[in-house]
Amino acid sequence: MQYAARCEALTREYHLDGGTVRALRGVDLDVPAGDFVAIMGASGSGKSTLLNLVGCLDHPTSGRIRLGEEDITRADDDRLSEIRASSIGFVFQSYNLIPQLTVLENIEVPLYYQGKLGATDRNRCRELADQVGLGDRLGHRPTQLSGGQQQRVAIARSLVNDPYFMLADEPTGNLDSATTEDILNLIDSLNREGKTIIMVTHEPDVGRRAKRIVRLRDGMVQSDERVGDR
Amino acid sequence: MLLLWVRTLQLGVKSLSLHLMRSLLTVLGIFIGIASVIWLLAIGEGISRKAQEQIEGLGANNVIVRSIEPPSETTEGIRGPVPYGITRADYERMMATIPTIERGLPIREIRRRFGRGGRLVDGRLVGCTPEYFEVNRLDMARGRFLTDADMRTKANHCVLAAGTAERLFPLDDPIGQSVRVEETFYRVVGVTRPRSPTSGIGGSLAGQDFNFDVYIPISTLWSRIGDHVITRRSGSFEGEVVELSQATLRIDKVEHVMETADLVRETLRPHHRTEDYGITVPLELLEQARTTRMMFILFMGLIAAISLVVGGIGIMNIMLATVTERTREIGIRRALGAKRRDIIRQFLAETVLLSVFGGMTGVLGGLLCGPVSRGIRWALDAAAPDVMEQLPEVIQAVDPIIVPWSIPLALAIAVSIGIAFGLYPAVRAAKMDPIEALRHE
């Protein structure tokens, strides 16, 4: 079986003034290619820490992470940046578009850091904008868009580098229920097309849209189950 | 790679134009600094060019000794004119005892009225030797200059300067005709081309005008007129007893000029009770000009350096603020795959853009140096002429000359300032933890 990401006995400790905080205490998680995983848990359960590790923004204290075929546990900062640019698609709760750039330019950013600046890359960005339904807003700035539209741009951006998986951190946290539904439908359809999706959420309704729910508690996997009918 | 830089610069322009006013104010310090770099080099060049011209007029190899009329108090109570100035004996002594003097040129000048028919011209009658022609780099318009034969035979020959010739012979050829000086007639053998005035030397600050000269052999002058000269001036008579008005001494090598000037001073001193002579060393003017120029460059350089440093700190300050302001953007870019050096490049591009913009406008400001300095001089002349007069002559008269290589130099300085003061904010931006930066509100 092909895996998008595999985590083995991951731990992460933070050394603060008051002592050591053990955010993760040995997490095993395999994400096969094409999966749609929702990671759930209360705040402080370690889901952000896990997300940062899988997203190559942080190093584990111990354990092992592999993305695709590559072991990134000890990769240096530059290599992690390369992986983020080429193989991970981030979607954030607060969209995190760059305000001075247009829709098209925002979608392009990950390509820019891979040195892909040609015309075919531009076209790919246009296609993605079309795919998320913003083909007619390419020249707009983020501030001229609604929250749902901004999140669509962010989703297009996360796909532009054809990543191992899309890493969505509370993607609907700032949206009303109708827009939430839109975005979840979009993510759903992307998954059906074969995209691997890892989504962090604390909303049960949103979590249920995934194929699989992993619950974290106190830095450990509490449960890992397939969602009923899917 | 090139495309990457182009895109980075585009992005920089975009970010900077979001805060246009802020960017322009930031650039001001660099503008002033760069403009003053160009100014100081242009003015320095102007000063040295001017000095060069003066020295060319007087000859860098020369030491010039001039007779000066002593102040009247020292001769009070003595009847009749008192002899003063350098004597033929002085001249002979210097020529005989100072080996570094290659050639000497004795001159005796008298103010006289020249006549031809009904036409009259006031000018200087200059008794000199044939060397005068070469030492002062004269050019003949017609005929010849005085010769050794003229000297030997004490001939009544004369050479007219351009102005004299034009006034006395406006229509016909002066060669072969006669010019009257007092009761004596001189036959014209040549006419010189016009000659530009040199700066004043030895006591008289006024520049000398040579265009109404008449040159005759000094031997003729001594025998026909003598040392005791009586000049009619507005009804009264004035007498003076002077053997030589000036001796121009050509030194064999430029390196010997200063020492020789000292020797000349030592040779003259024992034979003169009063300071009735002045020694001018054109080379000293060069030294003076060099000092003035150095002072100027130091002074302006200090201004330039201060304003460049202040400008650089301004840029650094703004960039630090920008980095803080854009923490979130940095986090996003890092998450999307920017390496540390990508972030550094991005912010460095912005500071370099700022400083290059400052540099280019500064160069434009620097090129206005000529008109602006003329304006300042004009204003100063009109508002405070006495202040103006006290300034050294080189500064009063200087005309800035833009030094071509100062433009690339100024731009290079601007870029270096941008990099030097932009590096710290850029590195700080790059060192941010992406997780923290993403969380930043």
What tags apply to this protein structure?
A: 230 residues; alpha/beta; Rossmann fold; 7 helices; 10 strands; B: 441 residues; 3-stranded mixed beta sheet; 16 helices; 55% helix; elongated
Give a topology summary.
The complex is a heterodimer of chains A (230) and B (441).
Chain A (H helix, E strand, L loop, with lengths): L2 E14 L2 E14 L3 E5 L6 H8 L7 E6 L2 E2 L5 H11 E4 L11 H10 L6 H13 L15 H13 L5 E5 L7 H16 L4 E4 L3 H4 L4 E6 L2 E7 L4
Parallel strand pairs in A: 3-8, 3-9, 6-7, 7-8
Antiparallel strand pairs in A: 1-2, 1-4, 4-5, 9-10
Helix pairs in contact in A: 3-4, 3-5, 4-5, 5-6
Chain B lengths: L1 H17 L1 H39 L3 E6 L15 E2 L3 H10 L3 E16 L2 E10 L2 H5 L4 E4 L4 H6 L3 E4 L1 H7 L9 E4 L2 E9 L20 E5 H7 L3 E6 L2 E7 L3 E6 L5 H12 L8 E4 L1 H44 L1 H9 L4 H28 L1 H15 L1 H6 L2 H5 L8 H26 L2 H6 L2
Parallel strand pairs in B: 2-11, 4-9, 6-8
Antiparallel strand pairs in B: 1-12, 1-13, 3-4, 3-7, 3-12, 5-8, 6-9, 7-8, 10-11
Summarize the structure.
Chain A is an alpha/beta fold. Chain A contains seven helices and ten strands. The mean pLDDT of chain A is 90.
Walk me through this protein's architecture.
The complex is a heterodimer of chains A (230) and B (441). With 230 residues, chain A is an alpha/beta fold. Chain A has a single domain, classed as Rossmann fold (3-Layer(aba) Sandwich). Chain A contains seven helices and ten strands. Chain A has helices spanning 47-54, 77-87, 103-112, 119-131, 147-159, 177-192, 204-207; strands spanning 3-16, 19-32, 36-40, 62-67, 70-71, 88-91, 165-169, 197-200, 212-217, 220-226. Chain A is globular and about 50 Å long. Chain A starts with a strand and ends with a strand. The relative contact order of chain A is 0.20. The model of chain A has no long low-confidence stretch (mean pLDDT 90). Chain B is of the alpha+beta class and 441 residues long. Chain B folds into two domains: 2-55 and 287-439, no CATH class; 69-275, no CATH class. Chain B is built from 16 helices and 13 strands. Chain B has helices at 2-18, 20-58, 88-97, 131-135, 148-153, 162-168, 218-224, 257-268, 282-325, 327-335, 340-367, 369-383, 385-390, 393-397, 406-431, 434-439; strands spanning 62-67, 83-84, 101-116, 119-128, 140-143, 157-160, 178-181, 184-192, 213-217, 228-233, 236-242, 246-251, 277-280. In chain B, the strands form two sheets. Chain B has a six-stranded mixed β-barrel. In chain B, helix 2 (20-58) packs antiparallel against helix 9, helix 2 runs antiparallel to helix 15 and helix 9 packs parallel to helix 15 (406-431). The longest helix of chain B has 44 residues, at 282-325. Chain B is elongated. The A-B interface holds A 52, 55, 57-58, 77-78, 81-86, 90, 92, 96-101, 109-110, 112-115, 117, 157, 161 and B 3-4, 7, 14-15, 18, 328-329, 331-340, 342, 434-435, 438.
